[in-house]
Structures are given as structure tokens and as C-alpha cells.
Design a protein that fits this description.
eight-stranded parallel barrel, three-stranded antiparallel β-sheet, 20 strands, binds D-mannonic acid, binds magnesium ion
Amino acid sequence: MTIDSAEVLVASPGRNFVTLRITTSDGVTGLGDATVNGRELAVASYLRDHVVPLILGRDEHRIEDTWQYLYRGAYWRRGPITMAAIAAVDTALWDIKAKHAGMPLYQLLGGKSREGCLAYGHASGRDVPELFDSIRQHQAEGFRAIRVQTGIPGLDSVYGVAASAFAGAGGTARYDHEPARRGAQPVEERWDTRAYLRHAPTVFEAVRNEFGPELPLLHDAHHRLTPIQAAKLGKSLEPYDLFWLEDVTPAENQAALRLVREHTTTPLAIGEVFNTIWDYRELIENQLIDYVRSPVTHAGGITALRRIFDYAGIYQIKSGMHGPTDISPVGMAAALHLGIALHNFGIQEYMTHSPITDEVFQPTYRFSEGLLIPGDSPGLGVSYLDEVANANPYDQAYLPVNRLMDGTVHDW
Ligand code: CS2
Ligand code: MG
């Protein structure tokens, strides 16, 4: 059997997605997610113009060989666009192989290592009372671990907090935060690190007083602190026993985390913007992080991410796969099949997709009592309804750009 066709599907059911659909000569289809938020068309072109012509006619069973062919054969390696394109091909081929085998993908990956994948939800509020409402709402939905993000006095908008509540299921107010904004230009936000460092510990103190010591709490500093500021935040949050503190400082300079480690025992999660095992090498070998955040979609697919987790497992570092809405249900399904099979699974991020998104992708994974469980149908357990997708064409959207109060461009 060979790869007969490969379609690059770009649409915007709720938000923009890029999906690769491979069909084999015996009519089996496989799906892969290639969505890079705010740069979707770059991956679509990379796939359409440079990858699809190269994979047509190839043996769909040779996943590792195809991975190496696309990675080494490109000469120009790594980076978010290349690795998302390779991830889409890889994921689609694993979907096809599992369908050929007549089993859910996790069975091919070694079978279940647990009954389900512990998931964390996004609670947020412009202030503490709104945050408490959002935490209670997520607990009512079954979440057993909660990410906490709040507004900061003096700042109009910050990462992770919806500008306004909108009606969720059953009319309850929801504060989900979709970071990408439709438009020809990115919106600009202002940031004040000192205000944030003063405010964050007071929020976690309030949450612990209100919800007690057991509830696993996560927080995303979203790459905005210098190493010493990151050390200070980690230390100031220690009394509140966080499950993890995420992206506390930009990690291109992996050694920066040494300074953070010297000052705090707050567990650290990093990697959602990483694309290869090389981005992690120093962090993992020197025990500088506790959770690997890469999703299947951005780290070269199941073939490559499984390798990163096996490497991290040597250092007792666990998975914490990125799972916001800009990871499509195809990417989420792939994460769950890998996550349920993996030994060193830690936790899975779960930002629920909108109903129209789910209508297109028909995901068979389910959320039950705080756990995400992949479907049991052969393959990944996702589909792609063209007619619904095509009724929602791509619509340009960008992530915000961040500036300090003096106008200096800063990490968003
Ligand atoms: C975030 C994301 O979920 C997270 O941990 O860092 O929301 C991130 O901002 C978006 O995925 C960017 O596209
Ligand atoms: Mg994050």
C-alpha cells in the first residue's frame, strides 16, 4: 500500500486549524494536526508545496523512515514550522497504521499504563472573586487540577484572562481565554513585572485559604520573567505548594534555569514552544525542569515526542503536554493515546474546544471524573467533516504582542 493522496485542510471552525489528511491506496485515511497559532499559512504552504509532493507514493507503513526523510532530508532542520509539518505526517501515518491493525493507537504504543490521563483546566478571573467562580465551575465540571490565572491591578489585559465572561454550557459564565485575536495586525498589550510579582503570591494565598491545601494548582508565567525574577516568584509561591510553575523564564538559554533551581523547589514546567529533543537536552540532563510541555503537534509528532519522554524518564521528569484550543482535537487525541501509554505521564492540559470545532473533528476521547480517556475505535478516533469545515473558512488571527510600560517589546 502507498500514500495515494495528502490534503492540506485549512479552516476556522471556532478558530483557525491546519489539518493534514493522508489517504492510502487501499482507502484508509489518517489525520495530523499542523496548527501553529498565528502562523498557520506558513505550515500549510510548507506541507502543500514541499512535503506532500515528497510523500505521495511512499509506503505508509515506514513511519520512522519517513520521519528521518523529512527531518534530515530537508537539510534545514528544527523550528516550529518544519516540526509541525513533520508532526502532521507522522501523526497521520500512526493513525493509518492503527487503523490497519484494527486497534486504538494506544495499543500500538504499548497499551494503557493507567485508566485515564489526569487533566487540568483553565480557571481565570479579572479579580479574585471571578477567579473563585471559575475554579468552582471547573470543579463542578469534574476537573481535579486547576490552572490559576488572574488579572493584575493596573494592567488592562494579561495572558490567560478573558477580557469578559461569555455564556458557557447551561448559561454559566465562562472565562475561557482564546489568545489569538482575529485581525490583520496583532493587538498590543502592556506588561509590568513588578506589579505581577507583588500580586501573584496574594492570589495563591487567597486560593489556598478558600480551597484548601490538596487541590493541585498550576500557573503559567508565560515566559515573562528574567532568571532572577523567576527565582523570586518560585520562592514566593513555595508556601502555596504549586503542582507546577510554567514557562517562568524564556528558555532559549537553557542554563538560565540553573539560577531558578538554586533558589526554589517549586516544580518547573517548560517546553510548549520547543520543537526538538535538542531544546531540552541541558534542561533534562541537569534536572532543571520537572515537566516536559511539548505537544505532539509542535515536537515532530508521536515518533519524536515519545523519544523525548523516554529520555526525560531517565531523569524522572514527567509529561505535561500542551493542550490549549490551538492544538486541534486531532493533536489532543494523539496526546491522549501517547499519554495513556507512557510510563512517565504527569498531567494533560485540557482547554475545551468550542462546539463547532468538535462538530468538525468528531473527537471520540472523553472527559470523565477529571480524566481524559482516548477513544477505543481503531486509530486516533477523530474525523474531519469537510462540509462543516468549509463553511468556516480561514480568518487571519494573531497572538498579541507585548510591550513593557515604557514601550519596550517584551515576551508575550
Ligand atoms: C499557553 C497557551 O496553554 C498554555 O499553556 O501557554 O495558551 C499559549 O499561549 C497558546 O497556545 C499560544 O498559541
Ligand atoms: Mg503555557
